[in-house]
Design a protein that fits this description.
Length: about 375
């Protein structure tokens, strides 16, 4: 995944236009096959699952976020992690807008593989990163502007790879430093947009010192050796542990890094080890929120209602062998309990949201 440090090729992001198509939201119950669509009804365990599909030929849905009464999904369309064309020659991802009940709205074609997508409601814009392994760039997208897409070239990208997930935490834009060339560079950056430049400042390094949050070394300091920074998100105040922290998932390392007071002099780190590699992890801010899930295998987006509790952590587990699955994450032990009632979904991107107007300051999924 590495590229030569400090030689970042600017990736042009191109607006092709808005595509609006008619589509009908389908409903289904699990654990029947995720491809089988039927009338909405309660599934085992009190879950109800609805699905909505791509508008056209988009494929491989990844990150998902919400702004206002719209949901936005990045479809990567087979584009490679350095922005390489797909097997059919596609070079752009699709960012597709949906209403909360799945009706399609506008769409935008963005050159490269869109890995990070989150909402910045305060500025009424989406934040995007492209190409996780290198040739990476940053963009903003304001759906209501005549020229909605603005592209920025990175400065200060020193870890040798690309950028992945993006979050807004206390007004700061934070991105994962993916595909590092060694274990001494930044694991995450804060981003300042200045003119046409996205200026990066390291948040903490791959070999930073952190306190172990579980296991036999709990409470003791350890030196990190991160090789795979990936998803990130903000932990809500409702969580039983790590409240208001910025969470970075080091997927291949099977570790979650929690930074309290990220980006200031009071920043401290804790590391939670998990038994399986994780992609997105999200937290319910309160009870009865809806879980939105992208499923690249079935090429759908699922809306799941059910007995979710305030502070509950749900993860996409991506084992080395076998399909991805949804699991409840225990923030005390790092244990993962599969959600068997939702076993038919092959998850990737996750987001908890509400059914009403979203006025939150942080529209991040994880990983969005």
């Amino acid at each position: 995944m590495p590229v030569t440090p400090n030689k970042l090729k600017r990736t042009s992001m191109v607006l092709v236009g808005a595509a609006v198509a008619a589509s009908t939201i389908a409903s289904m119950a699990l654990p029947a096959s995720a491809a089988d669509e039927s009338e909405s009804h309660a599934a085992p365990g009190g879950y109800t699952v609805k699905s909505f599909s791509p508008v056209g030929n988009e494929s491989a849905p990844d990150d998902i976020t919400r702004m206002g009464n719209s949901v936005y999904v990045s479809f990567q369309n087979g584009v490679g992690p350095l922005g390489e064309p797909s097997a059919t020659g596609i070079t752009a991802s699709t960012v597709q807008q949906f209403s909360l009940d799945g009706k399609p709205g506008k769409s935008w074609q963005v050159t490269g593989k869109v890995d990070g997508l989150t909402a910045d409601p305060e500025h009424h814009r989406l934040l995007l990163t492209a190409n996780e392994d290198g040739n990476s760039s940053f963009s903003t997208l304001n759906p209501d502007q005549a020229k909605p897409l603005a592209t920025y070239t990175y400065s200060g990208l020193t870890h040798g790879g690309g950028t992945d997930a993006v979050s807004v935490v206390n007004g700061k834009i934070l991105v994962s430093a993916s595909a590092p060339v060694d274990a001494s560079g930044p694991a995450a950056y804060s981003v300042a947009l200045e003119g046409t430049t996205a200026k990066l400042t390291p948040l903490f390094s791959d070999n930073a010192t952190a306190k172990a949050a579980n296991g036999p070394q709990t409470g003791k300091e350890t030196t990190l050796a991160l090789t795979d920074p990936d998803s990130n998100t903000l932990v809500p105040a409702a969580a039983p542990r790590f409240k208001d922290s910025f969470m970075l998932d080091a997927q291949g390392d099977q570790q979650l890094i929690f930074a309290s007071n990220p980006g200031n002099g009071k920043q401290t780190l804790q590391v939670l080890s998990v038994a399986q590699p994780l992609d997105d992890t999200v937290f319910a801010a309160h009870s009865n929120q809806t879980l939105l899930v992208t499923d690249p295998k079935d090429n759908k987006v699922f809306s799941v209602t059910g007995p979710f509790k305030a502070g509950q952590a749900v993860s996409t587990v991506v084992p080395d062998a076998g399909p991805a699955y949804l699991a409840n994450l225990d923030l005390s032990t790092g244990a993962l309990a599969p959600i068997k009632e939702l076993a038919a979904i092959h998850p990737k991107g996750l987001m908890f949201t509400d059914g009403a107007e979203d006025n939150s300051k942080d529209g991040k999924s994880a990983g969005e």
